Amino acid sequence: MNPSDPAFYHPAPRTQKFCSQCGHTLTREIPPDDTRMRDLCTHCGAVHYQNPRNVVGIVPIWGEQVLLCRRAIEPRYGKWTLPAGFMELGETTEQGAARENQEESGARVQIQSLLTIIDVPSVNQVHLYYLADVLGPELAPGPETIEAAFFDFADIPWDELAFRTVSTTLQHYLQDRPQGRFPTHHYAIDLRFPG
Ligand SMILES: [Zn+2]
Q1: pLDDT value at 179 more than 80
Q2: Is the domain of 69 the same as that of 115?
Q3: pLDDT digits (tens, 9 = 90+) for 99-118
Q4: Mean pLDDT of all residues in 51-59
Q5: Is residue 88 a part of any domain in this protein?
Q6: Residues 184 and 124 in one domain
Q7: 4-8, 27-31, 123-127, range with the lowest pLDDT
């Protein structure tokens, strides 16, 4: 598909079969005065809009090392990742990143500046990664993590990383580190293409 094709940025929505208002089976159509296909309830008239989800995480730095977690869940079971996950209702992006780290690595951290904002329209997500200082070496990984471990920057397992948002975020950190300045990087990734 060509990036100039309008469908390029309109990937398949998450599927929802029944109306959460009345339980009736949903249809997919373009409502009046709208321009996109929606899940529509012909029984009660509810339109079930779908919007991108935020994934929030951190880049936990301990001296000359970065803390990574090995995933105990699909997708990418057994691969290494930065602590991150879906933002919950009622929390800020920073609170969500801190919570995900607590759940996945258990490391005590101080969150710093926002390092990356990554649009991933092919899966309807936006990923946000904060820099974070690790405050101590104690780890307490939760059930979604096989193990958590500190890696020297030279030993980051690039071929065993779970997601391109993770590898590109780590690349930005390592590129910025010699300057000691960490501006926010905003870019897009299309997961349907390699590289
Ligand atoms: Zn309904």
Answers
A1: yes
A2: yes
A3: 999 999 999 999 999 999 99
A4: 97
A5: yes
A6: yes
A7: 4-8
For residue range 113-149, list pLDDT tens digits in order: 999 999 999 999 999 999 999 999 999 999 999 999 9
Ligand 1 centroid – CA 187 distance (Å): 38
Distance (Å) of CA 130 to CA 105, 106, 114, 146: 15, 16, 4, 23
Q: Separation of 38 CA from ligand 1 center, angstroms?
A: 13
- Whether 3 maps to a domain, the answer reads no
Using CA atoms, how far apart are residues 82 and 61, in angstroms rounded to an integer?
11
Work out the burial of residue 127: count CB atoms within 10 Å of its CB; fewer than 13 is exposed, 13-18 middle, 19 or more buried: buried
C-alpha 151 to ligand 1 mean position (Å)? 51
Same domain for 72 and 134? yes
The rounded Å distance from CA 52 to ligand 1 centre is: 22
Total of domains in the chain: 2
Question: Are residue 40 and residue 121 in the same domain, yes or no?
Answer: no
Task: Report CA(12)–ligand 1 centroid distance (Å).
Answer: 22
Q: Please report, for the domain that includes residue 136, its CATH number.
A: 3.90.79.10
